[in-house]
Amino acid sequence: MTHQVRAVVARGKGAPVSLETIIVPDPGPGEALVKIEACGVCHTDLHYREGGINDDFPFLLGHEAAGVVESVGEGVTDVTPGDFVILNWRAVCGQCRACQRGRPQYCFNTHNAKQKMTLLDGTELSPALGIGAFAEKTLVAAGQCTKVDRAASAAAAGLLGCGVMAGIGAAINTGNVGRGDTVAVIGCGGVGNAAIAGARLAGAAKIIAVDIDERKLETAKKIGATHTVNSKHGDPVEAVRELTGGFGADVVIEAVGRPETYKQAFYARDLAGTVVLVGVPTPEMKLELPLLDVFGRGGALKSSWYGDCLPSRDFPMLIDLYLQGRLDLDAFVTETIALEDVEKAFERMHGGDVLRSVVVF
Ligand code: APR
Ligand code: ZN
Ligand code: ZN
Questions:
Q1: What is the distance in A from the centroid of ligand 2 to the CA of 275?
Q2: Which ipTM did the prediction report?
Q3: Which metal ions or organic cofactors does this protein require, according to UniProt (predicted)?
Q4: 42 C-alpha vs ligand 2 centroid, how far in Å?
Q5: How far apart are alpha carbons 27 and 39 in whole angstroms?
Q6: What residues have CB less than 8 Å from 173, skipping those under 6 apart?
């Protein structure tokens, strides 16, 4: 059997996305068909549309999603129909060196659903990040589904599938922020603000938000920043030092992805402090640093890939904290929109006043 559902498709480079009817097959072995309840709009969707990722058009966009498992294929035991799940980019293998060394975040053999979703004329779709959830139903590998408490709002839960998890994880998993730490976060978009939420959750005593946009700093305060620094006017490294008794922060999280902010992050940390790089640079970017500074300051420079998260460990835990009122995931849902409004949400994305627009089905 197949399913015909409405979906948002990017048919060609730079062209506005279109609302299409697509064909979704029943799940094969190891696969799950998920009825999507909500899916956030992410910069990465826009990158796919602009051809910045690859040229495998048409793309079925959407990847920050939560929904209910409708049916599962042969051999699937971890999820069952009716489960409320958050989707993640890839299922890990459990067998490769990375998996066996306890670093499944870096699994070499991740997989997605093998069967293809198609347009009505049979053209195969490339699901963004192996998900494709701007669709009423999507097909994924069962290992991409993590069951969480049904009481959570789907719009908030889905955000853990990407940027919000990346930020929270940068603080709690990669940065190991602890009780009483001072933390600086450079760049307060969706990812940086999530890092602020993570630092707060971990018990940081001081959380310094740095951005060039005053509106982002206002949001950061609501999410948990104790101090804000507008780096449009002056050196944020000096400002962070001043706010930390002249030392620098225990943990600095970079959530922009540019050489100048990488450098600021490097110098804003205390001796033996940790720098967490979660902002993704482009291939041509370079950073030059005096080696004596690298050597002499000690501590750690770490990059954070998807918040070093383990979906099976982190999604249910964060949803429980959300339901207990200890993690305000709703604060990241700036607006809920209809499926046909994804293109408009792309336009609003760079306006500076949106953390996340979320499609609710
Ligand atoms: N200094 C400080 N903040 C800056 C600077 C700068 N020089 N340049 C930009 N910013 C701020 C922006 O004002 C914005 O608030 O960085 C923030 C970036 O936020 P978004 O564009 O919303 O991006 P986001 O989704 O948070 O992702 C940030 O993390 O995962 C990566 O690929 C992602 O590299 C990107 C980064
Ligand atoms: Zn994303
Ligand atoms: Zn593996």
A1: 22
A2: 0.98
A3: Zn(2+)
A4: 4
A5: 21
A6: 304, 307, 308, 309, 314
